[in-house]
Task: structure prediction
Amino acid sequence: MQYIKMYDNLTFSRIAMGFWRLLEWNYTDDELLNLIEKCLDFGITTFDHADIYGNYTAEAKFGNALKKKPSLRNKMQIVTKCGIVYQSETARVKYYNYSENYIIQQVEKSLKNFGTDYIDLLLLHRPSPLMNPEEVSNAFKELYTSGKVRTFGVSNFLPHDFSMLKSYLNVPLITNQVELSPLNMENLENGVMSLCLAERIHPMIWSPLAGGRIFTSQEDAAVRLRETLEIIRKEQNAEGIDQVVYSWLLTHPAGLIPIVGSGENIEFIRRAADSTKYTLTPEQWFMIWTAVKGHKVP
Ligand SMILES: NC(=O)c1ccc[n+]([C@@H]2O[C@H](COP(=O)([O-])OP(=O)(O)OC[C@H]3O[C@@H](n4cnc5c(N)ncnc54)[C@H](OP(=O)(O)O)[C@@H]3O)[C@@H](O)[C@H]2O)c1
Result:
């Protein structure tokens, strides 16, 4: 495993583990504890959550597993997000809330759920037209000075959203968590990666395997992609095409941190962790780009 410095005294593993799908895995607390320990054995120390995952239950499930071995807390970095409100008995529509009180309230809940007294990194889940940056700034200031949140970042922000928010804050934004995979290259082309390079920050990458579509999609681009990934897999002597996809992401100069979405198959997680040992040549990197686009670079 490789590690990457995110900020003073905050280092992430190059491969993070994501818990969006935690409830689908149907783990008991002991089984989940075993999964967490396996990740740590593989060198994965960064765990990605959100208040809403598992319809607001995933954080507490993770916290219950952690309570069985509290000594693991300081061996990991907990990332969580807030700002999305799901439709429910108390919310007539799904919406975004970034008021000062709501951000603080959600962090208090996350701390309780995890059974911890600090979050390593708090992300604002999505930009909102109603986000008042002064309220966000006040919330961040309070959460930082009380020691409840060590660092802050955003998710799914375009460069103009990022720059606007940054200009109001007294604390740095240390990452932008965005979607990126060979089957979704939008964030490679819209300025987000250039922003990360200019800001010297490392983006966290969600759905690195396109939510599994890399393996299953029958679209022409995906079929061409799989053929190309297999050629490169053989050249790199990698175990699976998943590792070639992770290394396609890891090769980018912005220092990307792919988040693994698979939790039931421990082998998938081990392979993801091991993918840090491969580096694609520029030619191999563009073979993947070309396969998906269906044409050569200009
Ligand atoms: N910030 C945001 O807005 C946002 C949005 C979405 C996700 N996320 C974060 O990103 C994480 C990853 O997203 P994701 O779950 O969509 O990631 P992904 O890795 O693109 O997709 C995971 C899916 O691919 C399947 N899969 C098939 N073969 C696989 C293999 N060899 N290795 C790994 N997975 C394989 C998995 O199936 P099995 O489960 O059967 O293994 C799982 O259903 C989430 O857990 C969450 O933490 C953030």
Observations:
- Residues 3-216+240-278 form a domain with the TIM Barrel fold (CATH 3.20.20.100).
